[in-house]
Amino acid sequence: MVPKGRIAGAGLALLALAACGPATKQQTEGPFPAADRPVARIVSPRWSTERDRDSRAEAQQVMTKSGIKPGMTVADLGAGEGYYTIRLAARVGKEGRVLAEDIVASIHDALAERVARDRLDNVSVRLGTPADPKLPARSFDRVLMIHMYHEIGQPYEFLWRMRPSLKPDGLVVVLDADRPTQSHGTPPALLKCEFAAVGYVQVARENMPSAGGYLAMFKAVGPRPDPKTIKACVNR
User: Fold this and answer.
1) How confident is the model at residue 25 (pLDDT cuts 50, 70, 90)?
2) CATH of 10-229, one of 3.40.50.2300, 3.10.20.340, 3.40.640.10, 3.40.50.150
3) For 51, phi and psi rounded to 5 degrees?
4) Phi, psi values for residue 166, rounded to 5°
5) How far apart are CA 110 and CA 79, in angstroms?
6) Which of 2, 25, 176, 215 could anchor a disulfide with 186, C-beta 3.0 to 4.6 Å?
7) Taking the model in full, what pTM does it have?
């Protein structure tokens, strides 16, 4: 997973896509099915500047549409350099908490330094793994996945392991581009199908061109399925 810089201008976006090389299909071990789609490579910690993104009020719009309020506990998965982490910390305030997670050790360490430098006492930084964000159980009002879902190599296992971290009324918020996964996006129908396979129901979706794609929100419903019963979605 990689920081939230997925909405640069056309020139930067084309350069980034040209640099990513061929996408890969991941194989899984154990009971979880493999995703029937390419997985975008992680190529850069930044595709756009924070100033550029703030000029479009990206984070503020996403947080407002996601219902993020003071006092909430929020996870920022694939936090990268911390564009959302820093702004989430301000939104939830002193009574709230933000957990920033990434799987790249060097990026994790750089973000931890930024958090310490800025004295963000309501933020903690955690190193996850490609198939498990390693989130504490029953902890989060919102889990944000911003322009990173297409880089998850084992989506069914990842979503399955993430489920217990949500509070009973918690939501998963995904922002991604409506394009093939190998082109650093996720078609909305495929996203909905993969979440549904692990027991999530889509509760909202809307286009957000100013944030580089669309916003979708999911709620976990019913018991977590047995991994052996999960069926992979067909990517047509």
Assistant:
1) low
2) 3.40.50.150
3) -65, -40
4) -80, 145
5) 11
6) 176
7) 0.86
